[in-house]
Fold this sequence. Notes:
By secondary structure, the protein is α/β, with parallel strands linked by helices. The chain has 3 domains: 1-59, CATH 2.40.50.140; 85-113 and 259-424, 3-Layer(aba) Sandwich (Rossmann fold), CATH 3.40.50.150; 120-186 and 191-239, CATH 2.40.50.1070. Helices cover 23% and strands 29% of the residues. The chain has helices spanning 80-99, 157-160, 163-172, 203-216, 264-278, 297-301, 314-326, 363-367, 384-396; strands at 2-3, 6-7, 13-17, 20-25, 32-40, 44-54, 105-106, 120-128, 133-137, 181-186, 191-196, 219-223, 231-234, 241-245, 250-254, 285-289, 306-311, 332-336, 352-355, 376-381, 401-408, 418-424.
Amino acid sequence: MIKIESLDHEGRGVAHHEGKAVFVEGALPGEEVEASVYKKKPRVEFANISKMLRESPWRVKPECANFGVCGGCSMQHLEASAQVAAKQRVLEDAFRHIGKVSPGRILPAIHGPYWGYRHRARLSVRFVEKKGKLLVGFNEKRTRYVTDMDNCEVLPGRISMLIPHLKELIGALSIKKRLPQVEVAVGEEADLLVFRILDPLSSEDEALVRAFSDRHDIAVYLQPKGVDSVHPFHPEQPARLHYSLPEFGIVMPFLPADFTQVNFAINRALVRRAVALLSPSAGDRIADLFCGLGNFTLPIAKSGATVVGMEGSSSLVERAMENAGKNGIANASFVATDLFDMKGVDLQGFDKMLIDPPRAGARELVERLGPALPSRIVYVSCDPATLARDAGILVHSKGYTLECAGVVNMFPHTSHVESIALFTLPGAP
């Protein structure tokens, strides 16, 4: 018998037994279980529950029939508010153990909705010869096998309902073995699918895809090569994807391959909080680093501040400039530059900064700050470990105070931890 003490960053129960850490699939804090070990290492073991001895009061019945097989959601068996609390603990532990810092206060978590929230997804496609069956879905947990699924509770309902029809369509194509994935991109007024094709469609295939598109009122794009090859197939001129930030009067068009947040409702709340923490005002000069489409840049610019967005992708910079124009914003400019290499990047002369890096974080960037430091830095993170590392640099090397931090539940039912933190200079206004 072992007692589960906590959850790890992948949502597994963590216990200690006979001097080893034991990671137990599907176990929750406070539970007592008998476990069968499937993998051993010198200091750790990985196990499955063989018998439940004492169940957590926070355990719930998973909503999705694919839970336990699909690798997309690992925490559906944990009550929703307890999921958020577990992520908050992951964030606080990372600050304490990695950055050796502690936030002055914990921000209320941003959370909900919990189902039908995922507006972007990459579905794998696999024709299983031995079964004579085509599968469309997310990969199984920790394997490259494709989950045999007919629905997905975290996708919008109208997209979830398409999965059986997608299987039927792709199974009827001559290139069913040469179509490895389908990208889902959902906007506020239009939906589309991107078929990754390794061989061209035949004329019969094209007719089938057109009929599918018309029948289900969804645009189909094709991607024969890299991301730059994505193009509309049917209809030839589909409705443009967009999401909105109504509080700021902003509409953000985007293309199928552009990076956008998967959860529109949470993104709105995140932008609202980021702008409030940054506290921009007319006369400020503000940098938005890793700015993407301008998701934060344009709302910040609505304050009257002069905002410079920096981003490594030149195509995203072009899109951000277009979005600024479409929204009538003239006080935001954009620069394509490598924020990991940092050669030729000038970070001087900014009163405030917002940093929203990928999982690798922004170590090179924060190390280059100075000598004139911005009075406020809002850091939006998708990885607690790299945020904590960078927080350590900002606090211990640059003299900032970690004023507050909190989690943003962008991906409910997964172990993914999104968060936001505010750093201020002591004595700065």
